[in-house]
Amino acid sequence: MIVRVLRITITRLKKESNCRMAKCFGAFGPGGLLLLAALTVSMVVLPLMLPPLPPPPLMLLFFPVGIMAALMFLAFSPAEAVGNVVVQTV
Fold it and tell me: Of 6, 32, 62, 81, which one has the fewest beta carbons inside 10 Å?
């Protein structure tokens, strides 16, 4: 039933050349749209059904902080300008 509704919607949007949504949905086939809809439903329903998880260990909480610190260090560290200097112009 859902697949049929999606197919009808996609074909209707493809027929309307003035509609911008037709271009967006044209990138996904019916299977892709069905997969996206199933993922959306599972993300809404599963947290309501599953029991809450215990908090992770403290060291695992610092892992993303370490990655962010390393990325900020690399972003703000000076680049080597020796390879980028032009000695002669043409």
Answer: 81
